Amino acid sequence: MFSTARRLRDKGVLGLNERNANFIMRLNPRHFYPRVDDKVLTKELAIAAGMAVPNLYGVIAHQAEVKDFPKIVANQTSFVVKPAQGSGGDGILVITGRSERKRGNFRLSSGMLISDGEIQHHISNIVGGQYSLSGARDKALIEYCVQFDPTFAAVSFQGVPDIRVVVYRGYPVMAMVRLPTRASDGKANLHQGAVGAGVNLATGTTLTGVHNNEIVDDHPDTGALVSNIEIPQWDFILESSARGYEVTGLGYLGVDMVIDNHLGPLILEMNARPGLNIQIANSTGLARRTSRIDEIHDPNDTPAERAAVARREFHA
Amino acid sequence: MKQRYVYVLAGLLAAIGLSVFYYKWQVLSFPVTENQEAPVWTIEAAVNFESGPGSIKAQLHVPTLTPGFRMLNENSVSRGYGFSLNYGSGGREAQWAIRRADGEQTIYYRLSVYEDDSVNVTDTTPPFPPRPVIDEPMNTAVEVLVKDVREHSADTASFTSELLRRLNDPTPDTNVELLRYGVSSNADYVDRATMILAAARIPARTVHGFPLSGRQRNATLVSWLEVHDGDRWLYFNPATGVESLPDRFFVWWRGNEPLVSVEGGSKVQVDFSIQQNYLDAIAIAETQAAQQGASAFDFSLYSLPIRTQAVYAVLLMIPIGALVMVVMRNMVGIDAFGTFMPVLIALAFRETKLLWGVILFTLLVTLGLTIRFLLDRLRLLLVPRLSAVLIVVVLLMLIISLTSHRLGLNSGLSVALFPMVIIAMTIERMSVVWEERGPMDAVRAGLGSLFVAVAAYTFMGLKWLEHLIFTFPELLLVVLAIVLVAGRYTGYRLTELRRFKELARS
């Protein structure tokens, strides 16, 4: 037991307690949290900073507005409904199309049909606060459904694969690609069963994957290899995530991006408490990399310079 | 920097908690274990005499300084007599008086004492006694003996030993024979020794008392020799000259005055009876603290009304539950619903007992979950749905109680003590997790909550711990200190060792 702990310590593996006490509490001032916890605000800030985000169709903030839902999506065949203050990907509905026969029915990313009324019930649950972090009232966002890039088509089971970059004091330190599986129900969250694949920050190619805390080489549903996939526009992704530091002011930040077929990398959301499984996906510890950043940290670096530092320092 | 503040603060809290604890434990003798009983001796002196018609004034020497014992209480039972306690030359005296008495009279003086090694003779150093005026030929014998003994001794203690040895010599020389002349009782003998010691300018006095043991009727007083060596009082066995005191020797009075004197009475007799019983150590500590004027007891929970005490006995264990929670969450890393839900469940287990508690909890949550899924189809808004779940939980509790009562199981009735709001919230949280992350996660977190609740219940139910915390609530400061330090624990959680096991492979 103690030898395991010592080996983990030697590898610079970050534990939850240390993450909470030394990273989140030290680097993430509480008053900046709404910037990432409220996705409406995140979107506004990201747009103001000139970053690419999925287009917002509408926000439903009150129960009375729930009935406006059909109007908001009248011209859309695909869209995403998500809680503004959700966590861990809970409460997100991905609508990929409409029923051919009944216009009021929608098709979920899983292929199942869902009625207009069911979506409205879901929205009213969101507004009621079922998915919000504190259980307080929330807003529902209805936004552009990303048409995902074929890069990860072979290693995703429905849903949208995304790229998570952990940014420490403005420097990207670790990244992984999160690939939905049948078990994760199209969601890209590792604790729900998605596969995570580490990324070589220098080249933007994927490393081995992790599924339910185990190292895997291929996707459990498609069987395709998850390693050695080249992520398009990697420079832009690194720089965008580095810029997340300026946008949010958070020193320990997770930036989630998706690659749209037409629009390129888009910032989906940011997270003040990024999880630790990224370490398993990359087979390396976060603490080792963050202490390297502490050594070479320069407050005057621009996002582009910080992205360059990440490429230089953290290969494989 | 902050790290250090936490440790300083935690150290300070722990130091305060522990020192108050130590003071109450060692100085005020608060018992650290439950039902700790200390032997208490009740000694009764019955003064019996014949009274002619007329007024009576009786005086009895009563204990003043009692090395090794502390007085719990004293009282007098004497119908019609006026009673007072005075200080006389030989220590305290009990005095009874009555205007008219006739026939056989018995008055009682009773006191309770318990052993306390910390009680020493706090007597002042006596002055050198004046040389007693002794008639010849005794005077010469004393002088010769003192001179001889002095040559064969080094200090007060050895002088006394040597003197007593010679006085006890089975084949005494003429001087000793002369000195022993007329000595009939043990007390007379000690008196004579005191006189010789006074001639050698050594302060000495007779102590009268008895070794306490079990139950005794007509306990006989033993006379012992007390000698001051300029620093403290030493005790000598007058029969052997050995410096010692019998086990549990209780000093009744000192000096050579008679134990009792009754003016107006005859055939005076004093009987001592001793009884040993056991008294709750808390009661002793209480009395003692009151005697010492320590305010610690005023702030003790034992001064509260019994009903309030019972509430606090439970409340004070909640921090222990919280501590278990901290260890389970941050050091072991067990998933559980809600921050303190398991502690509240553990509190409910106190009433239902463990097995029934677990069964009832599982039953309630399972039934509640089923109904929660049925409610889900109605598409209710969040707060009404939560309220609906709460109402269903209350109804379920009612049904469980009624059913088990019908079946003759009384344990089912204790279900009412389950925190229903907490259970309703648990059901809601569990159903959300169930939908979002699948049954596996929901059941795992549910079992985690139950496990933490059982662990918290186990620790909160430790009788000795409960007693310790209730008697020494300041120990909660120590618990607080531990929690503060745990708050800065940045090591791995036990479950993380498993989670990151792939990374530990080199």
Features:
heterodimer, A: 316 residues, alpha+beta, D-amino Acid Aminotransferase, Chain A, domain 1, 2 domains, six-stranded antiparallel sheet, 30% helix, globular, B: alpha+beta, Beta Polymerase, domain 2, four-stranded antiparallel sheet, 22% strand
Describe this structure in words.
With 316 residues, chain A is of the alpha+beta class. Chain A has 2 domains: 2-52 and 148-313, D-amino Acid Aminotransferase, Chain A, domain 1; 56-144, no CATH class. Chain A contains 10 helices and 13 strands. In chain A, the strands form 2 sheets. In chain A, strands 11-10-9-8-7-12-13 form a 7-stranded antiparallel beta sheet. In chain A, strand 3 (93-98) and strand 4 (105-108) form a beta hairpin. Chain A is globular. The model of chain A has no long low-confidence stretch (mean pLDDT 86). Chain B contains 16 helices and 10 strands. Chain B has 506 residues and is α+β, with helices and mostly antiparallel strands. In chain B, the strands form 2 sheets. In chain B, strands 1, 2, 3, 4, 9 and 10 form a 6-stranded antiparallel beta sheet that branches. A 4-stranded antiparallel beta sheet of chain B has the order 7-6-5-8. Chain B has helices spanning 2-27, 138-151, 156-167, 174-179, 186-199, 281-292, 306-315, 318-332, 341-352, 354-376, 382-406, 420-460, 463-471, 475-487, 494-499, 501-504, and strands at 37-61, 69-77, 82-88, 91-115, 204-211, 222-228, 233-236, 249-254, 260-263, 265-280. Among the domains of chain B are: 138-248, Beta Polymerase, domain 2 (2-Layer Sandwich), CATH 3.30.460; 318-460, no CATH class. The model of chain B has no long low-confidence stretch (mean pLDDT 80). Classes of the chains: A alpha+beta (316), B alpha+beta (506).
